[in-house]
Here is the input.
Amino acid sequence: MSALANPLSLFDIAGKVAIVTGSSGAFGAVAAQVLAGAGARLALVAGNAKALAETADACGSADILSINTRPSDEAACEKIVADTVERFGRVDILVVASGKNDVAKINDMAPARFSDVMDVNVTQSWLMARAATRQMLAQGDGGKIVLMSSARGLLGHPAGYTAYCASKAAIDGITRALGCELGPTGITVNAIAPTVFRSPLTSWMFEDNENAQATRKGFMARLPKGRLGEPEDLAGPLLFLVSKASDFYTGHILYADGGYTAG
Here is the structure.
């Protein structure tokens, strides 16, 4: 039966092998549950052992390999892929959901803090994409890589976001460049770019202080959908980007932002 006659078949990832880094975080946990619910076999990666176990439990009866580590350097990323291949025999999907923010005005931010955000968000994403790409190329039948960007990769912010904005703009650049580089191989590389979602990274925005209240008010005024994003709003975009449905999409930044970047 053709895909046009059975369009839901385009989203079928049953049996695919997926690595999800940052799977103990808000976005990673959602990614893990979405992929598990769609029938994928999962390598869940996180440095927080307790939260990693909770994510694995939330995935129900899915075939899961829990890897209690962070993609902190080249050796760690290569081992994550190697452990996944040892367990499942291959890698079809990589979702890099690990990341961090550090909010401070430029005069208050030490260079080491800026470098740390860039390392976690940019270098570690690049290293994981590199390790997964090597395996996918060796397999010879394509693959799906999804990186985590942000509306802040496109838009600035007045509240001390120089490190975060720079890191997400870099992710956008990596996504586009890798999309061009790997296009002929059948490996697609795309990014999801949320605006403000409820997560540990944005918890400061919900605090009861003048700065947080002003920031919330400013964001809400710019959101055509009239609400903040929830992690579950990433489910549909993610399933699209890791499935056959997105085979013609690469180097693309998908804004999951309630219309924020439209205005």
Q: What stands out?
A: The chain has one domain: 7-258. The mean pLDDT is 93.
